[in-house]
Amino acid sequence: MKRYDLIIVGAGPSGLSAAIEAAKKGLDVVVFDENEKPGGQLFKQIHKFFGSKEHRAKVRGFVIGQQLLDEADEAGVKVVLNATVIGLYQDKEVVVRIGEEICHYKADAVVIATGAAENMVTFPGWTLPGVIGAGAAQTMMNLHGVKPGKRILMLGSGNVGLVVSFQLLQSGCEVVALVDAAPRVGGYGVHAAKVARTGVLFYLSHTIVSAEGDECVTGVTIAEIDDKFNFIPGTEKHFDVDTICLAVGLSPMSQLLKMAGAKMEDNPKRGGQVPICDEYGRTSIPGVFVAGDVSGIEEASSAMIEGRMAGIVAAEYLGYIDDKVMETELAGLDKALDGLRQGMFAPKNRGKSIEKTEEGIDISQNLLKKGFVGDDEIERFPGVTHRKGIHPVIECTQNIPCNPCQDVCGKKCISIGDNITSLPIAVTDSECVNCGMCVASCSGQAIFLVDEDCGDGSATVTLPYEFLPLPAEGTKGIALGRNGQEVCEATVVSVKSLKAFDKTNLLTMRVPKEYAMKARFFRVKTEEAAV
Amino acid sequence: MSERIEEHPILGVQKKGKTVKFTMDGKEIEGYEGEPIAAALKAAGLMVHRYTQKEHKPRGIFCAIGRCTDCVMIVDGVPNIRTCITPLKDGMTVQTQYGVSGIPFEDQ
Amino acid sequence: MNSVNDRSRDIGPFVPGADDDMLICRCEEITKGEIRQAVHDGMWTITEIRRYLRAGMGLCQGQTCSRLVKGIVARELGVSPAELEPATSRVPMRPIEMHVFANEAREVDQHES
Questions:
Q1: Interchain contact, B64 vs A468, CB within 8 Å
Q2: What is the structure's pLDDT at A20?
Q3: Per residue in A72-131, pLDDT tens?
Q4: pTM for the full model?
Q5: What pLDDT was estimated at residue A530?
Q6: Which residue of C has its CA nearest to A32?
Q7: CA A238 to CA B45: how far, in whole Å?
Q8: Are A136 and B65 within 8 A, CB to CB?
Q9: Which of A42, A463, B17, C22 has its C-alpha lying 20 to 30 A from A24's C-alpha?
Q10: Residue A90 pLDDT
Q11: Distance between CA atoms of C44 and C82, rounded to whole angstroms?
């Protein structure tokens, strides 16, 4: 048996963060992870993260994953991979399967950062090959470079369902529909909008009746449900698909804590069976801490902060720092975490139906029910203003904790203020120099640069474009509206792909000026698209 | 059915191991060394990994991270191998799993 | 005593449902109807259901179905799923071959290079 100061179970965002923090304070730390590679789910996250600078906003998930690994390496953290923790016994004995052997370790403190498992729903045919979890789709396309399917139906409109739908489109798959039993889109409106504008139809208050196929999925039928979850006859819709993707929530993977004897509770607000713990992850067992999704489902940015907190309290528990140092460091992290837990989607607002923004503006009902802001709704938001020449149009209509757009604009065209969840304001008396940084930096892909009147009857719209092939200058095509429907003909006038844009290409299209405030996506004219 | 992503708008051209050959129910298939067996099978268009013991129903990839155990197959003669997390090696023998056997039910 | 432990409670007769043939435990191929029937046979805890039907006892150890089983049992008992104690957590947390389980490492340091 080998002893460590601190053993961490799980090398995802929270586990690695805990390890880095503890190792920096002199603890002898080891992290065990059952997977072949560290980073948890971070390496499957190819979108830019939300938040502010301190949360590594506008950095893509897999890049954050690499940064964490480098930091862990620098701090002297040992990460043992293909190491499955199969048990946690009294006195913090940790039993690990490594290769073909069972190894015993003793720790003075333990951080459990095992993350979450996907929830599933049942319907006739749900065991057919071709019905997969959203995580499986991410794993296949973003880690292994294999398309999960050709024609896909996504069930679940939470952030996972929305983000994975977009990633499927980026991988060249067709998403035929996004379906949710709930009457409202569960995830960020901006995530929904970037999927909807490509033409994906949203079916809220719908769920799967059955998946069809003998050997694998060949089709799916959905239908509308009433408020008691009963199918409404006559509302059935059929789609030919080869893949059905399930994104219906996550449950904390807390079994190790239960085994160790930690006091547990079933808390629906935190996603299921979780250890009872304080705000810094101290469980009912002295010296056993938790961080990340295992203690309540949130997302990677907050998991990283929780991890740091757990690392700090573990260091204090073992006497490596005193309580004054601990409190100072925790205070800074408290603030960072609190920032992320604000806004319409904050944990405290879960299950609440919010009708107005913090500014008192009516929230777009189209966005909640169809995935896009209606043309008649967009003008009421402060990011949408008009003036001569090129200017940013910020279609960010819900209070979410995110502010990179304010930071990147050197000309102060965008103002959020100190409150990170405030809706961005497009400042009219500022001088936009068409640098494009706001478009590329918006994690929600909600900013457009628009010249509403070029003087010749046309307008130009610059939009974020993260698909292949990249249309060349001069390409003629169709402009799609926020709802993904065709609005007019469009021609690509420029495509910018700067390093600073970090793979978000800026596509500028010319459209008739009456469509300046309607055209929000570009589709190449192809034989297929014409069908 | 399915195919590989040649170039990804964010991830670019993903680095792969060397091309290796393995057999799937006797048929030779190519894949990349080190990728999960399931990824190579998916790229080759294979959907059914096994048929269940009781109901003889087809199953394939479901979670793709080694949790659900639905994608298990017989690999080099050993049943119940989670193909979604087992790296592909040159010359591997992969078989559809019927119950826990490599022999189709009608011949068992 | 919570309502799950109150075995004197009458939960009514087993009423067949339209979706009783829905597969719930993918590994052991246990249906919703079997789980519902088991509750009426007197299996009121998740642990009892596991032992009685093997639902959640297959290769994946309930990773996929435990939440679904909990919901079905709770509904049959007329309680909230939160009131049901989850199944016992014990070693090994993941499927593991017996020959590996019995193979104690003599020297653990080699794994940390």
A1: no
A2: 98
A3: 999 999 999 999 999 999 899 999 999 999 999 999 999 999 999 999 999 999 999 999
A4: 0.96
A5: 42
A6: C112
A7: 24
A8: yes
A9: A42
A10: 84
A11: 14
Provide the b/e sequence for A286-296 (b: ≥16 CB within 10 Å): ebbbbbbbbbb
Q: Outline where DSSP puts E strands in A134-200.
A: 151-155, 174-180
Q: Which residue of A has its CA nearest to B35?
A: A144
Over residues B26-80, the pLDDT tens digits come to 999 999 999 999 999 999 999 999 999 999 999 999 999 999 999 999 999 999 9
Distance (Å, whole) CA A128 – CA A256: 31
The secondary structure of B11-56 as a DSSP string is TBS-----EEEEEETTEEEEEETTSBHHHHHHHTT----EE-TTT-
pLDDT at C110 over 90: no
Interface test with C, best of A103, A121, A228 (most C CBs within 10 A): A103
Helix (H, G, I), strand (E, B) or coil at C26: coil
Task: Collect all residues from A whose CB is shorter than 8 A from any CB in B.
Answer: 34-36, 46, 60, 62, 117-118, 127-133, 135-137, 139-142, 144-150, 170-172, 214-216, 242, 466-468, 470, 503, 505
Q: B31 and B39 in contact (C-beta within 8 Å)?
A: yes
**Binary contact (B64, A139; C-beta < 8 A):** yes
User: Does residue B1 register a pLDDT over 90?
Assistant: no
**C29-49 pLDDT, tens per residue?**
999 999 999 999 999 999 999
CB C32 within 8 A of CB C49: no
Cβ C40 vs Cβ C33: under 8 Å? no
Tokens of A435: 């640098």
**Which of B68, B82, B85, B100 is the best residue to mutate to test the C interface, defined by the most C CB atoms within 10 Å of its own CB?**
B68
Collect all residues of chain B within an 8 Å Cβ-Cβ radius of residue C60.
67-70
Using a CB-CB cut-off of 8 Å, the residues of chain B touching A117 are: 67
Asked if residues A314 and A111 have their Cβ atoms less than 8 Å apart, the reply is: yes
Count the neighbouring beta carbons within 10 Å of the beta carbon of residue A155.
25
How much is the pLDDT for B2? 52
- Determine how β-strand A2-9 pairs with β-strand A29-32: parallel
- For chain A, list residues with pLDDT below 70: 527-531
| Residue C112 binned pLDDT confidence (cut-offs 50, 70, 90) | low
Contact C29 B52 (CB under 8 A): yes
Distance in angstroms (rounded) separating the CA atoms of residues A193 and A374: 10
pLDDT score of A529? 47
Q: List the beta bridge partners of residue B51.
A: B58, B98
Comparing C-alpha atoms, which of A449, A448, A434, A454 is closest to residue A513?
A454
For residue B23, what are the contacts with CB-CB under 8 A and spacing of at least 6?
A: B29, B92, B93, B94
* Whole-number pLDDT of residue C68: 96
Kindly report the nearest CA distance between residue B54 and chain C, in angstroms.
7
Instruction: Return the closest-CA partner of residue A375 out of A221, A529, A487.
Output: A487
Neighbours of A1 (CB within 10 A): 10
Partner-chain contact C92 A87, CB within 8 Å: yes
Q: What is the DSSP string of A205-229?
A: TEEEEEEE-SSS--EEEEEEB-TTS
Read off the tokens for A257: 């804590």
Contact C109 A251 (CB under 8 A): no
Nearest CA in chain A to B12: A503
Q: Answer whether B68 sits within 8 Å of C63, measured CB to CB.
A: yes
Residue of C93, C97, C100 for testing the chain A interface, max A β-carbons within 10 Å: C93
ipTM of the complex: 0.97
Strands A264-267 and A272-275: antiparallel
Contact state of B9 with A468 under an 8 Å Cβ cutoff = yes
Residue A478 CA to its chain's centroid (Å)? 29
Instruction: Find the CB nearest A146 among B4, B57, B87.
Output: B4
